[in-house]
Predict the structure of peptidylprolyl isomerase.
Amino acid sequence: GTVPRRRPPGSDMGPGLRLLLLPLALLAAPARAEGGTAAAEEVQIEVLHLPEACSPKSKKGDLLNAHYDGFLASDGSKFYCSRTQNEGHPKWFVLGVGQVIKGLDIAMMNMCPGEKRKVTIPPSLAYGQQGYAQGKIPPNATLIFEIELYAVNKGPRSVEAFNQIDKDGDKKLSELEISQYLKEEFARDGKKRHPSAHDEILADIFKKNDHDRDGFISAKEYNVYQHDEL
């Protein structure tokens, strides 16, 4: 028989809270674009469908939910389809922070829920000269994505989220403030959890975010996405 795996802290919570727990390194795109020609090359965007009500428009730091298919421009072969992965659930990711290739971060700005786009991304904004063998993408490949965006939410590292947790407004998050935030989040989703889950998650958040170990998560430490507003 198989040994039951212990679920990691945070496996049963909402996407916003899960992303607060993740170290940024896990989220980076597999390859960085090659420099040099990037300035001359741009992402081409063709809007296939635009809903009448277009709000809110996506911006850097937003949490997006989307389906997308990826094709090689050279022969039109499909190398990726989000509908066949993860039981067909649309993907969640934070826009503009390198969780996806640079070209997609650019291509999905100012997009509204329900919008569909076909985008062409040059190699310099995708997987560059190395390609990405694991993803069946050859070197110097131009990529085409067909994207359907479902939801635009305030990202977990937004100024609004920080201020919501920072109850006393001192621009740093104490253990008490984050503990209170966790309680509110847990109450909102109504799932049954072991009492120790709260403490484990709290410890995990501080381990991954309190870089100077002073017992507080400062605006700078929380704000790994480098918003300007804080």
The chain has two domains: 44-153, 159-218. The longest strand covers residues 143-153. The two ends are 52 Å apart (CA to CA).
